[in-house]
Amino acid sequence: MKKAVFCFIINFMNYFIITFGCQMNKSDSERIASVLEKNGYQLVSKENEADLILVNMCSVRQSAVDRVYGKAKGFAKLKTKNEKLKTVLTGCISQKDFKKFKNFFDYILSIKALSQWPEFLNEKRYFYYPNPRDEKFIEKFKAEYLKEKSKYSKNFSAFIPISTGCDNFCSFCIVPYVRGNLICRPHEDILKEIKFSVEAGAKEIWLLGQNVNRYRSNSKFKIQNSKLINFAKLLKIVNDIPGLQPTHHPPASRAPFWIRFTSPHPADFSDELIETMAKCQKVTPYLNLPVQSGDDEILKRMNRPYTVEQYKNLVKKIRVAFKKYRKDLEREITISTDVIVGFPGETEKQFKNTVKLFKEMKFDMAYIAKYSPRPGTAATKMKDDVSPEEKEKRYKILTGILKETALEKNKKFIGKEVEVLPEEQKNGFLIGKSHHYKTVKIQALNTNYKLLTTNFIGQFVKVKIIDALPWGLKGILV
């Protein structure tokens, strides 16, 4: 029987994955790795050691597409040194990029057809990337690939998709065209994967979806007199998973594992969800809440169904809820946002409304993008009339404001003891994320850094903050 499994990969055995994009892309890469290794592949640490190089891309931003082009050109040189080398492209690929990349890759495969990959890879070349909104394709695959087990790249942090696709059709966004319709995973599958991850030692659970708070799943058991599990109820169920007991006393964290999620949509944020977030102690005091613009007219053209005033009221509700239900440092929730500058037709006055919003909201962090047309989206029909120079100027203005507000927020942590989950060791320091999702650079008082790495990476630690920077904190181990 084993020989039958290995027949697909007789020509190449070593693989290497390059991932561009969001947490969902990273999660997809973990499932790809699991499928490949189940079929006999072995992970290598360098591109030039691989017989199969896989690129998991994202067409959402042009910068990511450009990076894929750069990588693809370099593969030609690698092939001169390794005749067995094959290359695969997958991920969120626009139809336009699919046509262009056919000349650069041996295989272009849909992630949703992951179960069939061993069969596809047995061919010399294979392109299988149908329109993800095609009814026959949806009916055949749906979100079945999410049933494949993940090979987590970090055993202490698990990306758990709860849905895939999106039905919002924001005019600037390509996700509905490359991911397809919103499809929610059965909550039973989600809980099974979370429990498995927690039992394996995961300290951080990320619930993922293009629009997590539109999650819906039919339930076999009653919760608050309802058979429908929405995102708020899912959070409550996950929060009630006990987790492993800490092996050290006193425990460094108040919870056996943390719950984070991304990305929510402001229009789908219910009062029930706000209260649930604040009450569930495993849900960390961090939220990324994309606003995209601080001007109502631009929001309307973006097809974002809320006003600036509604967004501000929502943030206020969330902040008030955490002050009501949380204690100590957790009373202050960290809020980051996404925003686009230079959207078609954005005037100087409309941009100043975004500036005003930034100053008023005092975000802890913001992911600022300079608008670039994405093929197939509604915004491509609009005139991209804001010059690259003006987009850069607006980007710098918002970054300057963010730098000030982020530093102001971070200074509040100086002298405080915070929970941190270290992810890596670099130049003698431990680097990790705090409970509030702040990047923390931890100074080691012990010079045995190797021992320090072994003991603390992937484990909750208490850190006393001694300094604050705009984009992070500095601290020492308690």
Major sheet: arrangement of strands: 2-1-3-4-5-6
Query: Which CATH C-level class of the domain at 2-138 is it?
Result: Alpha Beta
CATH superfamily of the domain at 2-138: Methylthiotransferase, N-terminal domain
| SS field, number of helical segments | 15
Total DSSP E strands: 21
Content-based structural category: alpha/beta
Cα gyration radius (Å) = 23 Å
The CATH topology label of the domain at 2-138 is Rossmann fold
- Helical percentage: 25-40%
Instruction: Give the biggest beta sheet.
Output: 6 strands, parallel
In short:
The chain is of the alpha/beta class and 478 residues long. The protein is 35% helix and 24% strand.
Structural account:
This protein is 35% helix and 24% strand. It is of the alpha/beta class and 478 residues long. Among the domains are: 2-138, 3-Layer(aba) Sandwich (Rossmann fold), CATH 3.40.50; 152-284, Transcription Regulator spoIIAA; 417-477, OB fold (Dihydrolipoamide Acetyltransferase, E2P) (Beta Barrel). It has a six-stranded parallel β-sheet, sandwiched between helices. The protein has a five-stranded mixed β-barrel with strand order 17-18-19-21-20. The longest helix has 24 residues, at 388-411. The termini are far apart.
